[in-house]
Amino acid sequence: MQTSILLFSVSEFLDYLEKNIDSIEGEMVHITTLFQAENRPAIGHLYVLAKAKVGNTLVQLERYCGEIREGEQHSEQLAREKALHIQRKIEDKCHQLGLLVERALYVEK
């Protein structure tokens, strides 16, 4: 039976990977961004999602980056910059640990 762990802190996610480095399936971490629209028009939220399969556990990071409103380029820019910063932080640590990074989300069916 597979279990899942959902983390919201980038440092907790990276610490978990580092502590369990020998159990990461395929030495692979998957990372992507997710735009989630609200029911209200012209408003959405940007997230960074990262996943790795560690033994029988799917370890997931869901990190909120900001709100995006139609016509407000400044808030969109800030959210996208934050997402890029988080992705780079994850990628840098993964490369330091010798892990591969794929810019796609791992989905198990």
Mean pLDDT: 91
Biggest pleated-sheet summary: 5 strands, mixed
Poorly predicted sequence stretches spanning 5 or more consecutive residues: none
Order of helices and strands: EHEEEHE
Q: How many domains in all?
A: 1
| Global shape | elongated
Q: Helical stretch count?
A: 2
Q: What proportion of the residues is helical, as a percent range? A: 25-40%
**Which structural class is indicated by helix and strand composition?**
alpha/beta
Distance between the termini: 14 Å
The number of E-state strands comes to 5
Range of strand content: 35-45%
Instruction: Name the strands of the widest sheet in spatial order.
Output: 1-4-3-2-5
Gyration radius from CA atoms, angstroms:
15 Å
Summarize the structure.
The protein has helices at residues 10-19, 73-97; strands at 3-7, 28-37, 43-54, 57-69, 100-102. It has 109 residues and is of the alpha/beta class.
Structural write-up:
With 109 residues, the chain is of the alpha/beta class. The chain has one domain. Helices cover 32% and strands 39% of the residues. The chain has helices spanning 10-19, 73-97, and strands at residues 3-7, 28-37, 43-54, 57-69, 100-102. Strands 1-4-3-2-5 form a 5-stranded mixed sheet. The model has no long low-confidence stretch (mean pLDDT 91).
Secondary structure layout plus pairing:
Elements: E1 3-7, H1 10-19, E2 28-37, E3 43-54, E4 57-69, H2 73-97, E5 100-102
Parallel strand pairs: 1-4, 2-5
Antiparallel strand pairs: 2-3, 3-4
Key descriptive features of the protein:
109 residues; alpha/beta; 5 strands
